Amino acid sequence: MDETTVLSGPRPRPAATATPPRLTTARGAALYIGALLGPGLLLLPGLAAAEAGPASLLAWAALLGLSALFAVVFTALGRAFPSAGGVIGYVAAGLGSRQGLAAGWSFLAGVVTGAPVVCLIGAGYLTELTGGGRLGQAVIAAVLLLTVLALAAGGMRASAAAQLVIVGLLIVVVVVAVAGSAGSAHAANWTPFAPHGWLAVGHAATTLMLSFVGWEAVAPLTTQFADPARQLPRVVGITLAVTSVLYLGLAVVTIGALGTGGGTMAPLADLLRLAIGPAGTAAAAVAAIVLTLGAVNAYVNGAAAMTGRLLARPAASDATPASGEGNGRPARLLLVAIAVCGLPLIALYGVGLVSPVSLVTIPTTLFLAVYLGSMLAAARVLRGPARLAAVPATAATVVMLAYCGWALAVPAAIIVVVTATRSIRRWR
Question: How far apart are CA 355 and CA 157, in angstroms?
Answer without folding.
Answer: 31
